[in-house]
Specification:
This protein is an alpha/beta fold. It is built from 14 helices and 12 strands. It folds into 2 domains: 2-201, inorganic pyrophosphatase (n-terminal core); 206-331, Diaminopimelate Epimerase, Chain A, domain 1, CATH 3.10.310.
Length: 334
C-alpha cells in the first residue's frame, strides 16, 4: 500500500470517521485529508452524521461531506468508485450507520487507522489499542511514509486537537513519552496552542448548560458499588433544543464524587430510539468489557459506549439489576 499511495498514480480515496465524530475522529480524518491531498490524490472526507458545531473552527471542516438525503447519491458514487477507503477512529462497521451498505459494492482496499481494542479485519491495519489517540497513529502513518516534512500548521493543528481531546488535555493514564514527543513535533510546526485551548474550552451554550443541570439533578449514587448514574430523556432533548455534542462530558461528572469509580449516562435521544449509554471509570474497572457484555458496545478500558433497545426506565432498571454482579470488581478496583 505504501508504494501505491506514495507513487505517482493518482488514487481516489475516501476517509470515513465514525458517527457523531469527536475531536480525535475529526482531527485525525482532517489531518489525513490534508496529507493525502498533498500527495496529489483525489480525497474526500465523508461523515455518516453531523458533527458538533463546537469543532467547526477546525481547519478543513468545509471539506466534509455529511451523509444526508441530498448527498446520498454523491456519497454512494464516491465510495463505490474509490481505490482506498480509510476507516478512522473506529474498527467496527456498525459505527458508520447507513454508509455500511455502500461499502458492499466497493472494491476499494480498506485501511484501518484506529486505537480501539478488538478490531474487525481490514485489508491494511494500523491498529494499536495501547496508544492514547488515533491521531498518534496518523502521525505514525505519515512518519512511515517518510513524509514528516509534509506536516504543516493545518495538519499539526488537527492532530494536536485529536491528542488533546482523547487524552483529557494530557491527563489520562494512556499517555506515554511518545504522546509528548508527537505533541512536541506538532508544536514545532507553529501551531497556536493558546488558540486551540481557547476553542476547546468554548464548549458551553445556554441549552447545553441547562441539559447538564438536568443531568446533575438526576444524578444518583450507589455507594455500595462505588457507582453513579444519570440520564437525559427525549423531552429534555427537545425542550432545550439539543445539538450534536451538547451531552458531551456529562458522564465524567459522576467520577468527580469521592469514592466513585464507575459513572454511567443514559441518553434518550428520541422516543422509540435505542438508548445511548456512556460508561466512564477509574482504575482497573473495565467498562469496555462491561459495555460489550451487556449493551452491545465497547470502547476503551476506562471509556466506552453502548445502546439499549429497551425504554429509558427499563434500561436503567436492567443496569441496576446487573450492577450487583460487579460488587467485588468495583469494591476492590484500584
Amino acid at each position: 500500500m505504501f508504494s501505491s499511495i506514495n507513487g505517482t498514480n493518482k488514487k481516489k480515496i475516501v476517509i470515513l470517521p465514525h458517527n457523531n465524530p469527536d475531536g480525535d475522529a475529526l482531527g485525525s480524518s482532517l489531518a489525513l485529508l490534508f496529507y493525502l491531498r498533498k500527495l496529489k490524490h483525489d480525497v474526500d472526507l465523508i461523515s455518516p452524521t453531523a458533527y458538533s458545531e463546537f469543532f467547526q473552527w477546525l481547519p478543513g471542516t468545509g471539506n466534509i461531506i455529511i451523509l444526508s438525503e441530498k448527498t446520498q447519491s454523491l456519497v454512494k458514487k464516491k465510495i463505490i468508485n474509490s481505490d482506498y477507503v480509510f476507516f478512522v477512529d473506529f474498527n467496527n462497521l456498525s459505527r458508520i450507520k447507513n454508509l455500511e451498505k455502500f461499502l458492499v459494492f466497493s472494491k476499494a482496499k480498506k485501511v484501518l487507522i484506529d486505537h480501539h481494542p478488538s478490531p474487525f479485519l481490514f485489508d491494511f491495519m494500523f491498529s494499536d489499542s495501547t496508544v492514547a489517540a488515533t491521531s498518534i497513529l496518523v502521525f505514525r502513518f505519515i512518519s512511515q511514509m517518510n513524509h514528516l516534512d509534509k506536516i504543516d500548521k493545518k495538519i499539526a493543528t488537527c492532530l494536536y486537537v485529536g491528542l488533546m481531546t482523547d487524552t483529557g488535555y494530557f491527563r489520562f493514564p494512556s499517555i506515554t513519552s511518545e504522546t509528548h514527543f508527537i505533541a512536541g513535533n506538532l508544536i514545532e510546526k507553529g501551531i497556536d496552542i493558546n488558540d486551540i485551548y481557547n476553542h476547546l474550552q468554548e464548549k458551553y451554550n445556554e441549552n447545553k448548560l441547562k441539559l447538564l443541570s438536568k443531568a446533575l439533578k438526576r444524578l444518583k449514587t450507589i455507594k455500595k458499588y462505588r457507582t453513579a448514574y444519570t440520564s437525559i430523556n427525549a423531552y429534555d432533548r427537545n425542550y432545550y433544543s439539543y445539538q450534536e455534542g451538547d451531552t458531551e462530558g456529562i458522564p465524567t461528572y459522576g467520577l468527580g464524587i469521592k469514592n466513585i469509580i464507575f459513572s454511567v449516562f443514559f441518553f434518550e435521544e428520541r422516543k422509540k430510539y435505542p438508548i445511548k449509554i456512556s460508561f466512564r471509570s477509574k482504575g482497573n474497572f473495565d467498562v469496555n468489557k462491561f459495555a460489550r457484555d451487556h449493551f452491545g458496545g465497547g470502547g476503551h478500558k476506562n471509556a466506552a459506549g453502548g445502546i439499549s433497545e429497551k425504554s429509558l426506565s427499563e434500561s436503567i432498571e436492567y443496569f441496576l439489576k446487573i450492577i450487583p454482579n460487579y460488587h467485588r470488581n468495583l469494591m476492590f478496583s484500584i
